[in-house]
Amino acid sequence: GDTRRAAWSFGFCTVLLESES
Questions:
Q1: Share of residues in the chain with pLDDT > 70 (%)
Q2: Separation in Å, CA 5 to CA 9, 12, 14, 20, 21
Q3: pTM higher than 0.90 for the full model?
Q4: What is the pLDDT of residues 12-21, one digit of tens each?
Q5: Sequence-separated contacts (24+) of 1-7 with Cβ below 8 Å
Q6: What is the rounded CA–CA span in Å between residue 2 and residue 21?
Q7: Helix or strand or coil: residue 21?
Q8: Angstrom distance (rounded) from CA 2 to CA 9
């Protein structure tokens, strides 16, 4: 599976959301 890729994508999205808010 792409567990690492999923975690990276989730983390990246979270960082973007926190940066924009």
A1: 100
A2: 6, 10, 14, 23, 24
A3: no
A4: 999 999 998 7
A5: none
A6: 29
A7: coil
A8: 10
